[in-house]
Amino acid sequence: MIGANTLQEFVVARQAEFAGATGDLSRLLTDIGTAAKMVNRHINRAGLSGILGAHQSNGNGSTNVQGEAQQKLDVYADDTFTRVLQSCLKVGGIVSEEQPGIIHVDHSKRGEGRGYGKYVVCIDPLDGSSNIDVNISVGTIFGIHRRRSPLTGPATAEDFLQPAKDLVAAGYVLYGSSTMLVYSTGCGVHGFTYDPSIGEFFLSHPDMKFPEKIKVYSINDAYINRAIPGVKDYIKSCRSEGLTARYTGALVADFHRNLIQGGVYMYPGTVAKPGGKLRMLYEAQPLAFLADQAGGVTRCHHHDLLHVQPTELHQRTPLFTGHAGAMARLQDAIEQAAVRQPM
Ligand code: P6P
Question: Does the pLDDT value for residue 240 go beyond 60?
């Protein structure tokens, strides 16, 4: 894409390839980039600006809808992304990890015949926030669906409860040694690196694909013995083949490294919690969409996650995502173990 170096130039240039594109999605993706720059600024100064640590509400720690302690940056990131998205005329509703219900976005009060935007956004504003106070990478994950309900009214749950294969776009922001925004609209995965001296994201990783060889496997070692049968067998094979183990505690960072170096991320369900920990709408589905676009595979135990029909806004799911060859071997191990030892 000659000349389309910044995120905005690239998004607009690629829009021309979509017949009938109105520019609405381009505007939404650009707005997400703007919110990412704002969050990035706070994360980079977190240690200096008193924004580390647990968020306090009325003198007590606060928890999100998941019952998890909220970090101050969790709340800042949620406020920032939801505020920027609510100002975007293309958005009709938002589901955020930090909020219990749908955040409705009604522009009809702005006059000009503005009704409700035609897209809905599912977002984990700050993934891996327990890493914040120890200065390890964190991220933002988002997925964008076209609404199914009438645009003359507010967004409904059915607008969000769609399979990952029907996502219009998905991406993540990785606040790491450098800050990157990686996204796909279904035409490949493209990575942009932020230059704070200019205040722009520049195309740095066009058309990202999982490499042929796999080098890494990612899982919290503490859960291996509790994982569903077959996971442990697969990990033994990874170790015997000399793969290296890497796990940062931030899904975005692990997914991004595995995409570049060749790897697989596993957060299995356990016999006690077969549903797993990670959230379907704003963690698993966006990464499943990206993995598919990059030649990878994403599964939740026995199913291709792209095709799973969600039933609840904050439902959890086991998550296995990464290199297609590795995922095939993991699936074989799980299925063989299921035959030997039905759960
Ligand atoms: P555990 C962060 O809380 C997160 O949702 C992912 O980013 C990360 O991979 C995982 O959970 C870490 O969970 O149980 O290993 O600490």
Answer: yes
> Tens of pLDDT along 57-108?
776 777 676 766 666 888 999 999 999 999 988 899 999 999 999 999 987 7
Mean pLDDT of 174-202: 96
Contact 75, 108 (CB under 8 A): no
- State the closest ligand 1 atom to the C-alpha of 247, by its place in the atom list counted from 1: 9
Q: Which is the closest atom of ligand 1 to the Cα of 130?
A: 3
Which domains are delineated in the chain? 7-205 (3.30.540.10), 216-340 (3.40.190.80)
Distance CA 325, CA 297 (A): 9
**Cα of 251 from ligand 1 centre, angstroms:** 6
* Residue whose CA lies nearest to ligand 1 atom number 14: 220
Ligand 1 atom closest to 283 (CA): 5
Q: Could you tell me the distance, in angstroms and rounded to a whole number, from the CA of residue 128 to the centre of ligand 1?
A: 6
pTM: 0.93
Hunting for tokens 């040694």 — which residue is that?
177
Summary mean pLDDT of the chain: 91
The two three-digit tokens of residue 77, written as one number: 């990131």
Strand 244-245 with 169-175, pairing: unpaired
Ligand 1 pocket, mutate which of 277, 283, 285, 320 (most atoms under 8 A from CB): 277
